[in-house]
Amino acid sequence: MAERDWPAAEIIGTERLVLEPLRVDHAAELAPLLNDPVLHEYIGGRPATPDELRERYRRQVTGRSPDGSQGWLNWVVRHRDTGAAVGTVQATLRLDGDRPVAELAWVIAAPQQGRGYAGEATAGMVGWLEGHGVQALLAHVHPDHRASARVAERLGLRATEVVVDGEIRWAKP
Length: 173
Hints:
The chain is an alpha+beta fold. The chain has 5 helices and 8 strands. An 8-stranded mixed sheet has the order 1-2-3-4-5-6-8-7, with helices on both faces. Strand 7 and strand 8 form a beta hairpin. It is globular and about 40 Å long.
């Protein structure tokens, strides 16, 4: 996988979920789901309006950073049976020398938390990424967010000593 040759997001299925590539028009659907005070406190911001989400998604769905050095892959996580959106998962791809690295992120809407969706969706994304040549995985987890730490552990990541913006970097050994 060469720089600027990142894969495009595809539909990924898991036992209970379907990961659908993110589109700009998902903003209106996801804004109410992601309007969660705990989430906003965690990411240090305020609720995003549908217009702000549309602008964010417009940048994300381009598939790559402006300089081409990073690939951006984003999925809406949906319940397989109902089609209802339950959150999002993301991977930022970059090269570390010749080795493709993915930095993972996941957000599950508050009413859907505690059901294992974050772990299942992220594991599905990781399987897809590894099938596309990604060789290293990273995540940044807030030290007080035990549920995210469990997701990272399920993926085979281990906490490191590295702190980025107050969060602990987790990496696959």
